[in-house]
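Consider one such protein record:
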Amino acid sequence: MCGIAGFVSPSLDAGATPEVMASMLSLIRHRGPDEAGYYLDDGVAMGTVRLSVIDLSTGAQPMADPSDRYWICFNGELYNHIELRQELRLLGRRFRTCSDTEVVLQAWAQWGAACLPRFNGAFAFAIRDAVSGDLFLARDRYGKRPLFYSGYEGGTGRGGDFLFASEMKAFQAFPGFRFELDPGELASAFAVWTPLPDRTPFRHIRQLPMGSCLAVRGGRTDLTTYAELELDVEPFTGSAREAIAFVRDTLRESVEMRLRSDVEVGVYLSGGLDSSIVTALATELSAHEIRTFSVEFDEAAFDESGSQHVVASHLGTRHSSIAVRGADIAANFPSAVYHAEVPAFRTAFVPMYLLSRHVRDAGIKVILSGEGADEAFLGYSLFRETLLRAAWHDLSDDERTARIGGLHPELSHFGPANQARLKSLFEQFAVERLPGLFSHELRYQNGRFAARLLKERGDPFAGLLALAASTPGYAALSPVQKAQWLEFKTLLPGYLLSTQGERMSLAHGVENRCPFLDPAVVRAAASVNLRFDDGSEEKVLLKEAFRGELPESSLARRKQPYLAPGAAVFKEQRPDYLELLLSDTELSRIDGIDPVFARKLVAKVMATPSERISTKEDQAFVYLLSTAVLHQQFVGGRNWGKDGHLEAELKVGTIVDLRTSRGPRPAGHALPGAGGPR
């Protein structure tokens, strides 16, 4: 795992290029604290900060193919690098290292962009063609690793400069670059809960969509999609017993592939079904004792420690957990927002920030987790709701009542009064109102409320509606498949894999791997979903696939979504930065925010007993506070301090300077100190 950054800038003074490149890398050094290196050519620079996980001794970057034509800066892991290396060797490719980075580079030299669909991994990379002068950027098919860019069609307004980086904060080091919040994108993010696949909260900055490649040449960019989301696949034709074996075997292969590492691999164990399955398979497949890690909460409503310890004891893992209190969330919220770089609608990413620090301090660099299981195997109540609402007019009143009663087994308070209210809502939302967004229309009501925080009151769903309408094959998907597509394109990459996942892990130099987001696993799930059940029971095939291997209580327990205390934390703790919302002067400085509505929201939340704050008010408050913190950090440029572990100098291992034809040479230069907020 690494971080990458670079630019194409014919106008930048050649003498300043090395310093700018080193400064950009210094701002993302937390992603790769082991070593750094960069490549320089006429008007072009790119570099890497490296977290050494595979081929610790010879995998340094930037790296060239044997012809010195192609140069790569790579962030991520290629899980099928062993198989691809063998295939490339048979084609005559010569390898100089054992790293997966070189496999990516040699595959590009052999097949060009046609290599991308062959990759099974989590990655974002930049490849420079020294002969043509072209620069290529690519990102994995599920958006596990981030890649941002600014320039050309995106437009920095600086005369043809093009910038890219694993994290947007690296752009701060480029001369003349300024961050500005984009009110239109904020409204969309508030409504949908995350930025859209190619968007960010900032003007003139885009992210490379998942499964895409961007060619940068001659002052222009050309974006292409190399991998579409595969949900409408051929149905599994075997028996239920065969389907169960098929699912288990496919997952086993995925976990086995993600255990490939030259360092120890641990597991995040939440106590739920998905992480328990990953832990069980890792324990079966690893030759070493598996170490598991989790978060505990003081409040019983959020705590899953009992289930975590049951699973850890049953599987014989060496378990370690951290206790997170409201005070911890309040104290670390600004630092976590700094690493997330986007507004958040809940605080659950902060405990993950603290957990990754705990994992790093335990000496672990690689962690497996259960993200993607609910999206692939229809684990959310959202999917059951969609099935019910889609069939609403074909059901009798008694059938509607009965099915509503079984929708939310995870909610202990979901009694007759709640069910009656939901029935009334379903009556209103049984017919599609937002074309293509039927499954999420109820969810988006909270987002519509949060979007009122912005002065501009346009349609916050316009961007998502346009994306769905322009996606080939989307209209032909079933309602449940559309629900999956929306989850895979928005909340999964935009929050679960990034804000709550990758960004919190890499804040402390920990790489996360997601076995459920293997292409073969996603295809397998799509082929068996709703083939042997009616969707009323959560992930029934997964449970059957691991019955007898997990504690029975883990298979029978109600699903407990991972959550953390929200607005109540800030009310109770009153951190200094809360003044950003309590001060009219500070509130009015945030780009695009409607101070009148924002003041009313803040006043109501602060005056309402915590247990009576509605979900939509809680989410809007956390959105507003995280936006205010983000504005002060990035737009205002306030120095929030440095994380202590980032204080040590990071040595540049290799400088490749082709501007003077000197070629690769070692360097002893240290990157300037940098860090995020404390």
